[in-house]
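[Meeting: bench + compute handoff]

Bench side (C.D.) handed over the final construct sequence. Compute side (W.E.) agreed to return the predicted structure before the next meeting so the bench team could plan truncations. Sequence as handed over:
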Amino acid sequence: MDYNNSSGIFIQVGAGAGDLDKRAKYKDDFTEFVKKIPRDKIKKIILVEPNPVNIPLLKECWKDYPESIIYNIGIVPNDYTNDNIEFYYCPLDEPHFQVASIKKTHVQQHYGPDCEINTFVVPVKTLNNFINDTIGDEAIELLAIDIEGIDAEVILGLNFNNIKLKYFSFEKAHLGNNRDNVLNYLTDNHYDFVGNGIEDNSIYDYLYINKRFTQ
């Protein structure tokens, strides 16, 4: 990325414990990527994590970055109208419950149909409303999302006409039958495929760029 032309605003939805998750070998692509950027090129780091268990470590992860703001909320598809929602998780996914989801079946796909299921309740927003409330019409350099089973619904509900987004990274593993719809939707909204996530060797993510920023 050309940091000289960057807006300096970076958003991660599904931040987990940042780079302090032992089970992930203390690795998080978004965190590693942003921490390599020259500090004078960073304006805002916006982190969204629904699981309250992860918030203390997320704060520790970003303690040296006063530009960071953490939101303990969930992101939901546009057709969800309540202010709160129940997240499902399996105790076997401790300590950071990375596959917690508003879809019980998503958790069961990872831990089996008979796994013990617990829940927690958090406030929610649609991604459109969240971006509008926190960023407004400012340009976003990078938006990275990992929303555990509802990625496709959220992406297909994004109003790209109302946001100025340069790079978009998202998990490809759970797009399901909507994979082609998602990729076509991005193409229709002037996005081109760049590679496999923020880190080029990623096996989980796709990275797209809005070609309007390259013209």
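W.E. noted at the follow-up: The chain has one domain: 3-78+124-213. C.D. will use this when planning the next construct.
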